[in-house]
Write a structure and sequence with these properties.
The complex is a heterodimer.
Chain A (H helix, E strand, L loop, with lengths): L8 E5 L4 E6 L7 E8 L6 E6 L4 E2 L4 E4 L5 E6 L8 E9 L14 E6 L1
Parallel strand pairs in A: 1-9
Antiparallel strand pairs in A: 2-7, 3-4, 3-8, 5-6, 6-7, 8-9
Chain B lengths: L4 E3 L2 E4 L5 E6 L6 E8 L3 E9 L2 E4 L8 E7 L2 E6 L8 E8 L9 E2 L3 E5 L1
Parallel strand pairs in B: 2-11
Antiparallel strand pairs in B: 1-3, 3-8, 4-5, 4-9, 5-6, 7-8, 9-10, 9-11
Classes of the chains: A mainly beta, B mainly beta.
Chain lengths: ~110, ~120
């Protein structure tokens, strides 16, 4: 699976958009980009994933550059409850025989009032 | 749906004791995962099951650790004997599998402290 690079931390004001970057310059054509987050004292939570096209769901939007070497997770209106560690994970779609999500250090997002 | 259920939420035990952690996956999910999280090592996959069969246990640290899944709605992770270095938060997760295999739903975790 391709390696990802994320800043250690960032902050944003409540109500503003939070844009979380992720670099994955060695990504292969069949690798997906997944985002998870972990709020303090809770289990990780799936947010969104994508392959080539931009994706949006009720939680966030995922913007993947045309060359697929980087992506941005966007929380359109951050709230205090979005304060968490956000993990960007790149991997080939699992077939079941090699399912292993590897969580790196992630980026700590702090939303300030 | 209640989500993934884990018990107990907190466990404090003494070195040498047996510890059993329990997990109930989301109904209909074919995959179940056990993870361990520590400050030093982050989140690590220990073992995962597909249709109650262990597929990959390469992350299990040593023979003191064992995991079972007797049926589709229940799994256990056992540590015998426990050691202080086993202190961590243990998470169970489940997934529908197929193209959504990497969409995993995590439980609240069990915080284990071994004295």
């Amino acid at each position: 699976d391709a390696k990802t690079t994320q800043p250690t931390s960032m902050d944003c004001a409540e109500g503003r958009a939070a844009n979380l970057p992720c670099n994955h310059s060695t990504i292969s054509g069949n690798e997906y980009v997944y985002w998870y987050r972990q709020i303090h004292s809770q289990g990780p939570q799936y947010i969104i994933h994508g392959l080539k096209n931009n994706e949006t769901n009720e939680m966030a939007s995922l913007i993947i550059t045309e060359d697929r070497k980087s992506s941005t997770l966007i929380l359109p209106h951050a709230t205090l409850r979005d304060t968490a560690v956000y993990y960007c994970i790149v991997r080939v779609a699992s077939t079941g025989a090699n399912s292993k999500l590897t969580f790196g250090k992630g980026i700590t997002l702090s939303v300030r009032p | 749906d209640a989500g993934v259920i884990q018990s107990p939420r907190h466990e404090v035990t003494e070195m040498g004791q047996e510890v059993t952690l329990r997990c109930k996956p989301i109904s209909g999910h074919d995959y179940l995962f056990w993870y361990r999280q520590t400050m030093m090592r982050g989140l690590e996959l220990l073992i995962y099951f597909n249709n109650n069969v262990p597929i990959d246990d390469s992350g299990m640290p040593e023979d003191r650790f064992s995991a079972k899944m007797p049926n589709a709605s229940f799994s256990t992770l056992k540590i015998q004997p426990s050691e202080p270095r086993d202190s961590a938060v243990y998470f169970c997760a489940s997934s529908p599998g197929g193209v959504t295999l990497d969409t995993q739903y995590f439980g609240p975790g069990t915080r284990l402290t071994v004295l």
